[in-house]
Amino acid sequence: MNLQKLSGAWIPIVSIIFGLLAGAIIMLIFGYNPIAGYIALIEGAFGNSYFTGQTILLTTPYILSGLAVAFAFRTGLLNIGVEGQVLVGWLASVTVGLLFDFPMIIHLPLAILAAIIAGGLWGFIPGYFKARFHVHEVIVTIMMNYIALYSTNAIVRNVLTDGSDRTEYISDSASLKASWLSNLMPNSNVHTGIFLAIVAALFFWYFIEKTKYGYELKAVGFNPHASQYAGMSVKRNIILSMTISGGFAGLAGAMEGIGNFGYMSLNNGFTNIGFDGIAIALLGGNVAFGVVLAAGLFGFLKVGALNMPLSAGVPNELVDIITALIIFFVAASYMIILLRDRLKTLYQRIKNKLKGGGRS
Amino acid sequence: MSAIIDVLQSIIPSAFLFATPLIFTALGGVFSERSGIINIGLEGLMIMGAFLGVVINLELYPILGSTLTPWVSIIIAAIIGSLFASLHAIATVTFRADQVVSGVAINFLALGIGLFMIKQLYGKGQTDMVQGMLRSTDIPILSDIPLIGPIFFENTYYTNWIAVILAFVVWYIIFKTPFGLRLRSVGEHPFAADSVGINVNRMRYIAVMLSGFFGGAGGAIFALTFAGNFYMGTINGQGFIALAAVVFGKWHPLGALGAAVFFGVAQSLSVIGGGIPLLDSIPSVYLQIAPYVLTILALVGLVGRADAPKALGTPFVKGSR
Fold it and tell me: Which residues are the signal sequence here (chain B) (predicted)?
């Protein structure tokens, strides 16, 4: 699977540069000043403490959804179902936050755990179907996304509320909001979930790189037949991988539920946290550290973009085009490799010519 | 008896209406996947089609008037849609990109381009309502048939029937023509196809561009029958349902037709089910999630095993075996 060969960091970096260059060209074509546009982007992400807070806020679920996709990738599975897993995690965390009243030291971990379990269950189902019936996980996870979307909406409307569009606020004892952090970045919605996300990334790294289970998951991703022959259970590893992947995604949902919003509302469509997670995982080379960096980049681009129309008159949708192109370039890494090889031979040829010219 | 006919008369036309864009897009998906290229980008292709259909409609209406405008919009959306889909072909066929990831990028790109251009053209996040919507008519002669006429041919859309006819045309092309045989061979065993002189990559380019043509048409038809304008949520998962129809229909054009009609029934039930006796007691969420649950069950094998084209998802690298 060519996704796993993206070990080097240079392909993502070249892709980002190409994407930003393409964005600059688009701005030029439509008569905007690309330098002003990109300055507005940077200011919009880090210009003051509020913007910085919002960037960290958005980066938090991105790290987790990126980890979710990357975790499944390492076993050779594509989890497009992060969207749905985020929604059920969101719902589970808010439900625990609403229904119980414990001291924070119990309540908060319980809400987080509920989200992880809900997301994990939503990942377990496609994993089980893949292992047991050889059903392609992509289709099942897409279907599971819609089931999650409509079911969570129905539960918010009919179970958690009496026909209302959103739930009450969760009790403070289940909230990730912390006054010291909010005071640091006033008015922003930043919450302590960012530390959870970092811990999750460390867990990802440790589990994949340092444990026997992680080794087996990777082995199944590289070559299921060889793994089977070596005595590993391919089926068990597929289910385990999808379940843990869903757990990361459920945690991302908790970031929205008990972190960012503090409630759950009806969703007309998906949050896009999960779809962006695919791009983030890919850009991060499916390793924990890379995912954290890529999530930071996405948070920066998306939050900074909101400042572009005000400061530079550039439509913020431009950033969606740029991120799409970055994914394209990473996916088509063969193109970049070809380009590198062409440049190398060209360089060699010029060098030889210069040498030949010097001799005659 | 007449009560049943009344119910059928309210369900079938609306189910058919929901199904039509799905049929178009799913037929495109069948072409692409039969050639061995996974197309998660159907959603993006529909977004592109909806965007183009709406913008062209808005711009051409003053010139072409109400009868011609929707048709011209759909055709131009389909043609530009096929060009847009060629990006997916370039990435996956020429540059051997992961097909799923490239499809995801197509989805992002279509929405990004659509919204960016709308801001650029109209200075706001959504377009005005188009005036040249597709309109329902009675099909002459056929609508006079007793019983069947009122249910199927009265107050219907020409696009519905074009979709059904196209499904049969696509079936004929894929299973009865040399082109179709080549297309299938490329998706099943590209090396064998290559060894008898079929240009694998060219076939795959054609197939992916056809999916853009049909997806673009499907998106434009959806926009010009339901939404009437283009904004962020004009196409909201229709493309993914079309993808499900491809799989549910076992990669067969007529299967996709059937699956799309089935999804159409499910969607229309979830919208108008409240007005039908018996169904009104079922909470609407069950009707909403039914198509997705059934697709999973179908895949698991309760409805019958579905086998994907064998080479689906693998890039063709000449001489690699």
Answer: none
A358: in domain? no
In a domain, A19, yes or no: yes
Range in A13-27, A170-184, A201-215, B276-290 with the lowest mean pLDDT:
B276-290
| Average pLDDT, rounded, for chain B | 87
CB within 8 A of A203, min separation 6: which ones?
none
Is there a contact between B98 and A138 if contact means CB atoms under 8 Å apart?
A: no
CB contact under 8 A, B97 and A144: no
Q: Helix A193-210 vs helix A234-254: angle between axes, to the nearest 10 degrees?
A: 170
**How far is it, in rounded angstroms, from Cα B163 to Cα B159?**
6
Segment B7-57, tens digit of pLDDT: 777 778 888 889 999 999 999 999 999 999 999 899 999 999 999 999 999
Verify whether the Cβ–Cβ distance A138 to B100 is below 8 Å: yes
Q: How far is CA B68 from CA A245, A303, B61, B159, B225, in A?
A: 51, 43, 8, 14, 15
Q: Which long-range contacts (CB under 8 A, 24 or more apart) does B161-165 make?
A: B163/B19, B163/B20, B163/B23, B163/B24, B163/B257, B164/B23, B164/B257
Look at residue B66 in the predicted model and tell me its pLDDT: 84
Q: How many domains does chain A have?
A: 1
pLDDT at B306: 58
Contacts of residue B246 in chain A, CB cutoff 8 Å? none
Angle between helix axes B42-89 and B238-248 (nearest 10 degrees) is 80
- Tell me whether 0.90 is exceeded by the ipTM: no
Where is pLDDT greater, at A344 or B76?
B76
Whole-angstrom Cα distance, residue A181 to residue B281? Answer: 49
* Burial of residue B279, with CB atoms counted within 10 A of its CB: 0-12 exposed, 13-18 middle, 19 or more buried: middle
Candidates A328, A330, A340: best to mutate against B (most CBs of B within 10 A) is A328
Q: Which helix (H) or strand (E) holds A107?
A: helix A104-133
**Closest Cα in chain A, distance from residue B224 (Å):** 21
What local confidence, expressed as pLDDT, does residue B152 receive? 74
Q: Is residue A157 part of a domain?
A: yes
What is the rounded distance in angstroms from the CA atom of residue B95 to the CA atom of residue B89? 9
Look at B169-178, B208-217, B231-240 and tell me which has the smallest mean pLDDT. B231-240
In DSSP terms, which residues pair with B137 in a beta bridge?
A: B156
Mutant choice from B270, B296, B302 vs A, greatest count of A C-beta within 10 A: B296
Cβ B285–A150 below 8 Å, yes or no?
Answer: yes
DSSP code per residue over A116-146: HHHHHHHHHHHHHHHHHH---HHHHHHHHHH
Give the domain range for residue A138. Answer: 2-346
Per residue in B112-147, pLDDT (tens digit) is: 999 999 999 998 888 999 888 888 777 777 777 777
